[in-house]
């Protein structure tokens, strides 16, 4: 059974993502539908804002991402990537659409990188991916 | 791409997401236990911030129910003064919630009925609380769900039948309450609260976009005010009071929105804070420390600002565009431009009302099963069976609500309009319970019943019901342009005071004295200087007089200046609009003063230990009491039928 602190944190995380997530998602869709880079890019920035909100909540409750959150986030990004690749191959995407997608990828990468660096430090972040082979 | 531009598809997608997340929280609630303690008895157990978010977002529901923006679009800015109810809901909460919470924890009374029974030992108040809870669930809930169902039908371009849409909406509301109980409702309400608030802001923002920006909207409103023919009632309150016999007899000159109507109608919003469902939300909080800042800045500040903007901007745009159903119109415009945004807005707005509606069904079922059936008829009823009965009763109430909305929408709407006025009649009882003012506590029930009677005979439902049994009243709804709440509260408090004066030297009884001692020891009197106290009361009286009382008539022309032979608005907006905005801002400051400076809603007292419910003296099934109740109900029904047959 979840503890009270876990429930509090989970409610806050949901509140952050449910308020900013649909907004960012809709803005990106709007940018793609209307071929408007600024709108689409602002959607990506709103999603980055939600991610930062999640980090603030984690810091406040002195917790980190749960395995479920990491799995869900990765799955959503993977799904988004597959959708983008399928669209790129199957439809004639405009330059704006591509730029919006690239903005999203860059913002997401920036968020993940920023999180790892701020949490583990520059050297520590590198060590998360690199393990020295025993001599 | 055609499919992706279908509003129905996006509504379905967002609806599935909404339901999925709500079900997830219902599962979390179930994991925490399915006993009565977790399902329906939340006293002092849930995160405080969830209680504040749910209470604050619930404050929007009455304004959605009365169609605030649509009302402004049809009646003008005199009607916008109703939006000042967004100050009165948290104001009543500031006065009540901290002490109600302490008493509820001390007495272990999860429902308003059990609270009133413990404090006043009055069966009449228990029945009244139960009736209000059922009305909130069946009629008020039905009305709000119907509004959303009709919007769903319109937004999907008629793909979903209104009846089907209503069943869909109702099943979401019922499912969460039935599976997870009060915890699921509170958790879902909290996670959706911020989304709902943003959706409301989004709706207002999109209206500004349609209007061409704030300046253009203001210019067009002023143009209508200066050059429109017969538009004066849209921008002016029609005097202090009009001595007409109510709508249906002699219509008031200009508009029915006199200052007396504004004062009496806005008082109805205080009824929300005295309702059984908000009692349930408030006592669920882990602590009473949050009520002060939460009610001031979240409820009156943030949600209040959104409600004001909703009335002025969305309603104002409807007024200048001659679109009486402006909320639906704006949503349809959003749908044309961006179906995904429309779906997000729709479920965002739904999330604002979801917790209150779902909670209303739970509160009504809880009252029916625990506070009436178990308390008076079947004291051996186990917790497990009680929870199962509550679940079944929630499902039945939702079904009744839906069927009534479909088959008798007019009756449903009239019953819904009774909810807030009736709940407001419990205000004297709640104030007396919290402050132990020197009144005869037995007068409270008498006053409440007199208040209920006055509401009944000045509301369309009551007048029609009496007409049905052959009693034709010589007045219509809201006589003298005074809303039923005004009549009810006037006679209610009047009766309480008169009875108290007559019986003031009588002993109040040991139970009452013990509760008084508990409150005095928990919240010791603060050493405020006399000027601070008198300032507080002066501020409150001045605000009531100027913001919602007769003084609001000053707002008709205060910010208008004469240049030559022309009149112009000093601040670029109609004077009444500026006055209402100032009234809201000063109302927030007043709430802060009472909550924080006067410490009415900040915890300064000692810790409250959770008490045990009073031991049940009897056991077994009381079939004799059941028989009496059935005979009473049959007697009332028979008398009504006979009167209707003879005189109706």
Automatic annotation (TrEMBL), chain A:
KW Transmembrane (keyword) present: yes
Highest taxon of the lineage: Bacteria
Keyword terms: Membrane, Transmembrane, Transmembrane helix
Transmembrane portions of the chain: 12-34, 40-61, 70-91, 97-118
Record flagged with keyword Transmembrane helix: yes
Protein name: SPW repeat-containing protein
Origin species: Cognatishimia coralii
Automatic annotation (TrEMBL), chain B:
Lineage top rank: taxon: Bacteria
Topology of this chain in the membrane: Multi-pass membrane protein
Keyword Ion transport tagged: yes
Transmembrane segments: 7-26, 46-69, 76-97, 125-151, 163-185, 191-211, 232-250, 262-283, 295-320, 340-364, 385-409, 415-437, 444-465, 485-503, 536-559, 571-595, 628-647
Protein keywords: Cell membrane, Ion transport, Membrane, Sodium, Sodium transport, Symport, Transmembrane, Transmembrane helix, Transport
Main location: membrane
Location in or out of the cell: Cell membrane
Reactions catalysed: L-proline(in) + Na(+)(in) = L-proline(out) + Na(+)(out)
Keyword ATP-binding: no
PROSITE patterns: NA_SOLUT_SYMP_3 (PS50283)
Signal peptide (UniProt feature, chain positions): none
Family according to the record: Belongs to the sodium:solute symporter (SSF) (TC 2.A.21) family.
UniProt cross-references to PANTHER family, sorted A to Z: SODIUM/PROLINE SYMPORTER-RELATED, SODIUM_PROLINE SYMPORTER
Protein name: Na+/proline symporter
Organism: Cognatishimia coralii
Source taxonomy: Bacteria, Pseudomonadati, Pseudomonadota, Alphaproteobacteria, Rhodobacterales
């Amino acid at each position: 059974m979840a503890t009270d602190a876990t429930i509090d944190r989970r409610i806050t995380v949901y509140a952050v993502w449910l308020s900013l997530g649909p907004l960012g998602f809709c803005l990106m869709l709007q940018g793609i539908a209307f071929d408007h880079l600024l709108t689409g890019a602002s959607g990506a920035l709103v999603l980055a804002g939600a991610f930062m909100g999640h980090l603030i909540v984690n810091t406040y409750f002195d917790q980190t991402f749960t395995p479920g959150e990491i799995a869900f986030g990765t799955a959503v990004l993977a799904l988004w990537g597959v959708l983008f690749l399928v669209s790129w191959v199957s439809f004639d995407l405009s330059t704006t659409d591509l730029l919006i997608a690239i903005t999203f990828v860059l913002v997401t990468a920036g968020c993940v990188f920023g999180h790892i660096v701020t949490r583990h430090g520059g050297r520590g972040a590198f060590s998360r991916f690199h393990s020295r082979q025993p001599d | 791409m055609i499919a992706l531009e279908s509003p129905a598809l996006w509504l379905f997608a967002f609806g599935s997401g909404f339901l999925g997340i709500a079900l997830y929280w219902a599962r979390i609630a179930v994991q925490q236990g399915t006993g009565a303690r977790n399902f329906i008895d939340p006293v002092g157990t849930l995160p405080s911030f969830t209680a504040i978010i749910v209470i604050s977002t619930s404050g929007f529901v009455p304004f959605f129910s009365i169609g605030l923006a649509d009302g402004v679009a049809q009646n003008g800015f005199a009607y916008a003064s109703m939006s000042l109810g967004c100050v009165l809901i948290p104001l009543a909460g500031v006065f009540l919630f901290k002490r109600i919470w302490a008493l509820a924890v001390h007495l272990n009374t999860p429902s308003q009925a059990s609270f009133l029974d413990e404090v006043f030992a009055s069966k009449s108040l228990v029945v009244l609380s139960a009736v209000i809870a059922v009305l909130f669930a069946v009629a008020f809930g039905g009305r709000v769900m119907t509004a959303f169902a009709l919007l769903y039908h319109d937004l999907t371009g008629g793909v979903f039948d209104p009846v089907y849409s209503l069943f869909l909406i109702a099943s979401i509301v019922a499912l969460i309450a039935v599976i997870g109980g009060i915890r699921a409702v509170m958790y879902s309400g909290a996670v959706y609260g911020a989304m709902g608030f943003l959706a409301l802001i989004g709706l207002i923002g999109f209206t500004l976009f349609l209007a061409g920006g704030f300046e253009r909207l203001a210019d067009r409103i002023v143009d209508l005010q200066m050059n429109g023919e017969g538009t004066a009632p849209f921008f002016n309150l029609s005097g202090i009071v009009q001595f007409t016999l109510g709508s249906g007899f002699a219509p008031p000159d200009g508009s029915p929105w006199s200052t007396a109507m504004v004062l009496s109608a806005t008082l109805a919003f205080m009824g929300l804070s005295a309702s059984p469902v908000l009692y349930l939300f408030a006592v669920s909080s882990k602590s009473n420390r949050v009520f002060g800042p939460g009610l001031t800045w979240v409820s009156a500040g943030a949600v209040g600002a959104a409600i004001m903007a909703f009335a002025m901007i969305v309603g104002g745009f409807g007024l200048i565009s001659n679109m009486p159903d402006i909320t639906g119109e704006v949503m349809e415009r959003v749908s044309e431009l961006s179906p995904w945004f429309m779906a997000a807005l729709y479920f965002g707005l739904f999330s604002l009302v979801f917790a209150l509606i779902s909670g209303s069904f739970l509160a009504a079922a809880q009252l029916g099963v625990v506070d009436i059936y178990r308390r008076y008829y079947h004291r051996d009823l186990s917790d497990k069976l009680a929870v199962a009965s509550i679940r079944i009763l929630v499902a039945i109430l939702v079904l009744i609500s839906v069927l009534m909305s479909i088959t008798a929408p007019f009756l449903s709407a009239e019953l819904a309009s009774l909810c807030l006025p009736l709940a407001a009649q419990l205000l004297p009882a709640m104030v007396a319970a919290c402050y132990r003012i020197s009144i005869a506590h037995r007068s409270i029930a008498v006053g409440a019943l007199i208040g209920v009677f006055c509401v009944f005979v000045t509301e369309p439902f009551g007048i029609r019901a009496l007409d049905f049994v052959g009693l034709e009243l010589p007045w219509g709804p809201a006589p003298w342009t005074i809303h039923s709440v005004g009549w009810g509260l006037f006679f209610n408090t009047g009766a309480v005071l008169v009875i108290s004066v007559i019986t003031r030297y009588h002993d109040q009884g040991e139970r009452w004295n013990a509760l008084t001692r508990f409150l005095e020891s928990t919240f010791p009197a603060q050493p405020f200087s006399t000027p601070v106290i008198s300032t507080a009361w002066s501020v409150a009286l001045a605000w009531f007089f100027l913001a919602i009382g007769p003084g609001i008539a000053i707002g008709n022309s205060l910010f208008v200046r004469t240049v030559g032979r022309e009149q112009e608005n000093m601040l670029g907006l109609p004077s009444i609009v500026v006055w209402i905005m100032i009234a809201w801002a000063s109302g927030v400051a007043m709430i802060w003063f009472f909550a924080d400076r006067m410490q009415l809603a900040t915890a300064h007292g000692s810790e409250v230990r959770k008490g045990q419910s009073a031991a049940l003296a009897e056991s077994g099934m009381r079939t004799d009491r059941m028989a009496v109740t059935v005979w009473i109900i049959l007697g009332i029904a028979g008398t009504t039928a006979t009167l209707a047959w003879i005189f109706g």
